[in-house]
Please model this.
Amino acid sequence: MRTYHQLTDPDRSGLAAQIGAQRQRVAERLAGVRRIVVVMSGKGGVGKSYVTANLGRAAARSGRAVGVVDADLNGPTIPSLLQDGDAPRTTQDRPEPTRGLDEVRYVSMGQFLEAGAPLAFKGPSAESFVWRGAMEASALREFLADVEWGALDLLLLDLPPGMQRYLELCDILGNPPAVLTVTIPTPESRDAVRRAMRAAVDHGSELLGIVENMVGGELKGTAADDLAREFAIPVIARIPWHPTPDAWNQLVTRIPDARRTTDDGR
Ligand SMILES: Nc1ncnc2c1ncn2[C@@H]1O[C@H](COP(=O)(O)OP(=O)(O)OP(=O)(O)O)[C@@H](O)[C@H]1O
Ligand SMILES: [Mg+2]
Model:
């Protein structure tokens, strides 16, 4: 597996060609994936990773082949949500996804880092900001291009807050991915999520619907209903604190086209 360290090689003149070739590799690698869904929110801490992991597990339990990409490269949380203590760990020599809880396959920068360590880039310090962006996009590209995902019904991508990673994904994939939006009920969340949804629409992404998380507690507001009305899309789940598996099972049925593997005999 090539790593982001390769970008620190003195001769970087082949970078553009390398990225073009990688995009082709992404398309080939993901040819067996029926449905790519990006889990996005303009706001941090609303439960994107929690929703991604539990949606993935419920989809897997219902017979789908599911992959999860932890696209939060600096604060990876997917391993803590999906890690199956009994499963063998992925190493950098074997670019296969790790088998997690309920057989969800996942890849995360957390698998390649010491616990809690931030990504350390070797780029020239004067350009460190630029280098960090390039390195992160490159690492994400490699998660998609180099990992042997195999045939999947559903590939979920858990994004960090903000829009940067979404924009990188549009570039890497060559077309805008479908978006599942997560919000909490508050007006602050609504306003941040609205900006992200507008950007997704502007880039041509299909909005699959809104998941309202952390409902029924102290967080007050009507963010999901407001956004659903504004964007003319459905609220496809309202997830309470510490939901039962049934909440996730219902959410799976609201994700279009993520069919069961058995539907076509695979
Ligand atoms: N419905 C819920 N019930 C109980 N705990 C929840 C629920 N939703 C989220 N959490 C918890 O809240 C915390 C924040 O959730 P999570 O990390 O998924 O948010 P995030 O949107 O991915 O955050 P970030 O923006 O940092 O990526 C986690 O500890 C998670 O386990
Ligand atoms: Mg997260």
User: Anything to note?
Assistant: Strands lie at 36-40, 66-70, 98-99, 105-108, 154-158, 178-183, 207-215, 235-240. Residues 44-50, 72, 75, 77, 160-161, 213-214, 239, 241-243 surround adenosine-5'-triphosphate (ligand 1) (CB under 6 Å).
